[in-house]
Amino acid sequence: NNPEITIIGIEDNGYYKGDLACIIEGKDTYKIQSMKVMLDGKLFSSSYHKINKKKFQYPINFSLLNDGAHTLSIELEKSSYKERKTTKEINFFIDNKPLLADFTKNEYKVFQGRTLHLQFHANKAIAQADISFLSHTYPCIQENENSSIYECFIPIPWDTQSNEYPFSLAIQDATGNELKLESKLQVILFPFSKQIITVDSKKIAAEAEIGLKHQELEKALVELTKKSPAKKLWHGLFYVPLELKKITTEYGTIRVTQDRGIRSHTALDLVGRPKGVIWASQDGIIALKERYALSGNTIVIDHGCGILSLYYHLDSFAPVAVGDMIKKGSPIGTEGMTGYANGYHLHWEIRVDNIPVDPMQWTKNDF
């Protein structure tokens, strides 16, 4: 057998700061003759060591290593007639920079029912960052690969009281340095309109016969949010998902119906062309394709980071399946009036962490 090598104190692709120490452990069924230590392709000081033991432990200390990537290579040679050697390599990183970061804006204001798109600069790659707001924690993600800007999408429920609220940002880099920043958010009152609609009771009964209960959809959305990939699957702004002629119900409209009472309509009702094409508002994964009593033929797209877009009342589905990757602008169905609907239209909804927010905000250049 070849000798066995264990390196204690340094992990492959680990990050470290300051002076670094490790222990080399060697083991062999017969005897280890010698050990050679290489750092970044060069012999480390006093790198050749006579061992002549079955087992040994050898401490190695590194000091004043430059920031960046390094490679440690250990070679053990067996004491035997046939030359047998074992080599083990570990790549690691040294980072002695202090962690620095700052918000990209000095003040934050947002209407009820909108999304706070918060960004901050960091002077290095970070391991984790989270925003704490109103007893919830929202993870931050890199804006794009190799960017020094990180961002977070925080949903502001439509019924959040108009007020000034504190929030905090906790950052940790790969070596364990921590930084905390604090700021405030002004939630602004929005004048939601009111609407009364009537849906034929016979249609409601018929839809209940062929569609799943709305509670099943809500349960599914909870699970889909939990399973959403912790990375952005999209880039850029969202599209309005049809050839828009008019908006019949704005986000947050206080709606009165004969059987559902008074409730906030936390989506947009859009009218295009009856049975016209409905397309994906952004890149993502088809996460759900089903028929429900209230939403009718329903598609849900997962865009990553717990951000879902919902499309209700479709007349028919496009040939897509759950799990398919879909591109912005690709057809997902046609405009219909299935479910709880009294005319052809699309109910378009965006949820962030399963909280409905105004979808139209996601189509604006200033978002």
Short description:
It is built from two helices and 29 strands. With 367 residues, the protein is mainly β.
Detailed description of the structure:
β18 and β19 form a beta hairpin. The model has no long low-confidence stretch (mean pLDDT 94). Helix content is 7%, strand content 53%. It has two helices and 29 strands. With 367 residues, it is mainly beta.
Number of helical segments? 2
The biggest beta sheet reads: 8 strands, antiparallel
Arithmetic mean of pLDDT: 94
Helix content: under 10%
User: What percent strand?
Assistant: over 45%
The value of Rg in angstroms is 29 Å
Quaternary form: single chain
How many strands in all? 29
Shape: elongated
Q: Terminal Cα separation, in Å? A: 62 Å
Write the layout of secondary structure elements.
Layout: E1 4-8, E2 14-16, E3 20-39, E4 42-62, E5 68-78, E6 85-94, E7 101-103, E8 108-111, E9 115-122, E10 126-133, E11 136-139, E12 141-142, E13 149-155, E14 163-173, E15 178-188, E16 194-197, H1 201-210, H2 214-227, E17 246-249, E18 253-257, E19 261-265, E20 268-271, E21 277-279, E22 284-292, E23 296-302, E24 307-314, E25 316-317, E26 325-326, E27 331-334, E28 346-352, E29 355-357
